[in-house]
Design goal:
Layout: H1 2-21, H2 30-42, E1 47-48, E2 55-56, E3 63-67, H3 71-78, H4 83-86, H5 90-96, E4 102-106, H6 107-113, E5 117-118, E6 133-135, E7 138-140, H7 146-160, H8 168-177, H9 182-195, H10 200-203
Parallel strand pairs: 5-7
Antiparallel strand pairs: 1-2, 3-4, 6-7
Helix pairs in contact: 3-5, 7-8
Length: 211
């Protein structure tokens, strides 16, 4: 009986440790992370905007930090109140500081998609110059980043127990048609080095199918 208790306790500790390691536990100050780690470290040498793939050498007035899982939806899920009220919530600050969820985005794109739900809209909806399709409150990213969106969404849902922002079947489909490429893998490695945790759905995309 004593041995069984020891084994059970050990397993519980291992599971708890795995859960904690899977989250961002290093950062909890979103404003500082955006300035020092996102723009000042991860994109210190420039890069490409996420949805439109436009090169940039530094953050300009046309770019902003975007969130694959929008922060407004995080606030709704946590029921922590307004932006100012949620900033006092430790859980919200942890999630809002997670670099795996942040991408460089054109200002106008981020404004349009903040309250949208992800969906396959089909060829009846015309693409814009970036390959984005939009209709009402629905948003379909370009094919080249559909898998990136799916794996980030899977990470946020699984890691922080947040609701899906669209059908899980849509994200599973996007994960299959757009597997991780060198660009996504390179970014993921850098984020993991900075933040101290990985997105397991990039390391093993098959995990998306298990959600």
């Amino acid at each position: 009986m004593k041995n069984l208790l020891i084994i059970t306790t050990t397993l519980a500790l291992l599971l708890t440790t795995t859960f904690v390691i899977g989250q961002n536990t290093r950062f909890s100050d979103p404003k500082t992370v955006i300035k020092e780690q996102f723009w000042g470290n991860l994109y210190m040498d420039g890069g490409q905007s996420f949805f439109c793939d436009e090169p940039f050498s530094k953050k300009g007035f046309m770019l902003t930090e975007g969130y694959i899982y929008p922060l407004a939806d995080v606030r709704n899920a946590l029921s922590c109140g307004t932006s100012r009220e949620c900033e006092q919530d430790n859980r919200y600050r942890q999630i809002a500081s997670d670099l795996h969820n942040m991408v460089p985005v054109r200002n106008r794109t981020e404004l349009r998609r903040r309250n949208a739900r992800y969906e396959d809209l089909g060829i009846t909806v015309k693409e814009d110059d970036c390959g984005i399709r939009e209709s009402g409150h629905f948003f379909e990213p370009p094919v080249r980043v559909k898998g990136d969106v799916a794996r980030t969404m899977s990470y946020m849902v699984s890691t922080y127990d947040l609701p899906w922002l669209g059908s899980s079947r849509v994200f599973q489909s996007w994960n299959r048609i757009d597997p991780p490429d060198d660009k996504e893998l390179s970014r993921h490695k850098r984020v993991a080095e900075i933040q101290g945790n990985e997105n397991p759905f990039i390391a093993d995309p098959n995990r998306v199918e298990q959600l």
